[in-house]
Amino acid sequence: MRRIQQHRDPLFWISLISCVAVSAFILLPLLQMFCEPTWQGLYEAMADKNVRRSIGLSLYTSGWAALISFIIGTPFAYLLARKSFKGKGLIESIVDLPIMIPHPIIGIAVLGLTGSEHWFGRLIQEAGIRIMGTVTGIIVVLTFVGLPFYINTVKNGFEAIPLRLENVSRSMGASFTSTFFRITLPLAWRSMLVGLILCAARAISEFGAVIIVAYHPMVAPVLIYERFTAYGLEYSQPVAVLLILVCLILFIFLRIVSTTNRSKANRPPAAAGISKTKFSA
Amino acid sequence: MVELEQLTIDLPGFRLGPIDLTVQEGESFVLLGPTGSGKTLMLEAIAGILPITRGSIRINKTDVTRLPPEDRGIGIVYQDFALFPHLSVIKNITYGLRYCKKTKRPSRRRIAELMAHTGIDHLAERDVTTLSGGEKQRVALVRALSVSPSVLLLDEPLSALDRGIRYDIQRLLKSLHQETGTTFLMVTHDFTEAIFLGQRTAVLNNGQIEQTGGLMEILRHPRSPFVARFVGIPNVFAAEFKNGHALLAGFNLKLSNPPAKAATHIAVRPEDIRIHPSPATNPEVNVLTGKIIDTADHGPYGEITIQTDAATFKATLTRREMLEFYNIQAAEVIIQIPPDGIHTF
Questions:
Q1: C-alpha dihedral over B192, B194, B195, B199, to 10 degrees?
Q2: B148 touches chain A (CB under 8 A)
């Protein structure tokens, strides 16, 4: 009865139409792109060394961007989740800046800072670090655009862990570091994994900032753009389909890893006596 | 033993303290107070979780004011249990053992004994997320006691439990206190829990201690209108005192003892008021005439509100008495208050 009444509600139909419209809006162009290339075209793209290299470079640089975000973003996300301090709102806005700024501007900004006109640029060049037209440059801009996604996701993950768990751990003698590794990290790793996926996904799809900093070596989005401008839609689509497939396989694998562990955590109770117990300490 | 000296915590819009308090070694001490009075802040300050603004905290004669929580030798049990959800029951319980000094580390047998005492020995390998509320609180208690803390801090340990289980855990807490001899410092807003578990108490109101002492002493002799109402005395009135009598809205009330020095109030426990349908003959008791304006049935007992010319009193009645007066609302009755039922402060 309740279900019937719900179906009569105009809001239900508006929600349903909205759901179908949004799904179609996202899926139709992608499906079209998947249906367009021939098997022959896909095979040729796979056999093309440049395509393989660009997709490999995209995965490599995005992986590095995710790893750097993990290393520098995790402690920062923890700080934002656990501490209240003056100017916290401002710092959170700064973290979100790369999401809002048009990405070619990010590329220009990075080049401005790291070029030989700037003292910082000269300093890193003297240290042997080159940004313009290098893999390092690509990793720098990909980290720049991916970092906010990692930090925000992991911050939410840390916030979801009750502070009382850490308090109890410390009252039992565990130091701050021990508590982080034995309590916080095991409970937050799933959000970290999701953060890494989001960060890497954002980095793989980055085009605007990369094309300013490094047209060569060519990452997959730049190669797709080049094929499109030089040869047209027919030549760019197979590369795009391949890139999407590789990314999908990777992300589905990571999702499976995270959900498998979640179901392990909810395993059915097994009654066992103290005599069978292994003492962890 | 816990000693607090001029303990002060300043937070935006709230100040706790300055508080001076001593909890004796092996004592079961209860911090009582309504929500927002600062009880949990005090507990967290002792645990080292919350930084204090001024003052000092000593545990077993050692100044721990600047020590991190892990070096204070305390255990905490929260109302929401705070079990580590990714660890099994036994891993929760043995979590802190690796940090214990060898001399203080309890044996495997001792842990097994504690688990058996609390009735969770069959749950050792269980996932803590599958336990009931009572089981979770038992695990939390054993976990906190497993590291042999000098002081066990209990933050409303019974408030998240069902009524029946609450009584079981109350008894368990009492027996654990007796068995381990650990100093218990418990926070609660429930005076009945405090009476059952505590030996001494401090009543907190708005960040200040209103009264410290034995539970029965506070119950019988509250020193302020706040404490009186908090321990369940609804009949608290401002009064004047003359010639060993209390003057309540022009009515003379006999007292058994001279009023307290600088007394301004009287309090009458609801169970000390007797109700009669007809005039009393005992000249020693205080007699007032009034009308029943409300009755509330609480099952085993009842509460009745009587409006007199002096004040409006609440009295508690047995079930039998309650049935007698239940249907005579607005009827005129005589209330008797024995002089020793009037407390002054």
A1: 180
A2: no
Closest CA to A189 of A122, A281, A121, A264: A264
The reply to whether A170 touches chain B by the CB within 8 Å rule is yes
* For testing contact with chain A, the best of B80, B127, B132, B182 (most A CBs within 10 A): B127
How far apart (Å, rounded) are the C-alpha atoms in residues A13 and A7? 7
Give B251's strand partners: B248
d(CA B268, CA B313): 9
Q: For residue range B47-89, list pLDDT tens digits in order.
A: 999 999 999 999 998 999 999 999 998 999 998 999 999 999 9
Q: Is B259 exposed, middle or buried (0-12, 13-18, 19+ CB in 10 A)?
A: buried
What are the strands of the beta sheet with B251-254, ordered from one edge?
B240-242, B245-248, B251-254
Q: For chain B, say whether A119 makes contact (Cβ under 8 Å).
A: no
pLDDT tens digits, residue range A180-206? Answer: 999 999 999 989 998 999 899 899 999
Cα–Cα distance measured from residue B53 to residue B70, given in angstroms and rounded to the nearest whole number:
20
Neighbours of A19 (CB within 10 A): 10
Kindly report, residue by residue over B80-131, the tens digit of the pLDDT. 999 999 999 999 999 998 888 777 777 888 888 889 888 898 998 999 999 9
**Interface test with chain A among B46, B74, B84, by most A beta carbons within 10 Å:** B84
DSSP 8-state code for residue A278: P
Please choose, from the candidates A245, A273, A276, the residue with its C-alpha nearest in 3D space to the C-alpha of residue A37: A245
Hey, is B309 helix, strand or coil?
Answer: coil
DSSP letters, A131-172, are -TTSHHHHHHHHHHHHHHHHHHHHHHHHHTS-HHHHHHHHHT
The CB density around residue A29, as the number of other CB atoms within 10 Å, is 10
| B125/A272 CB distance under 8 A | yes
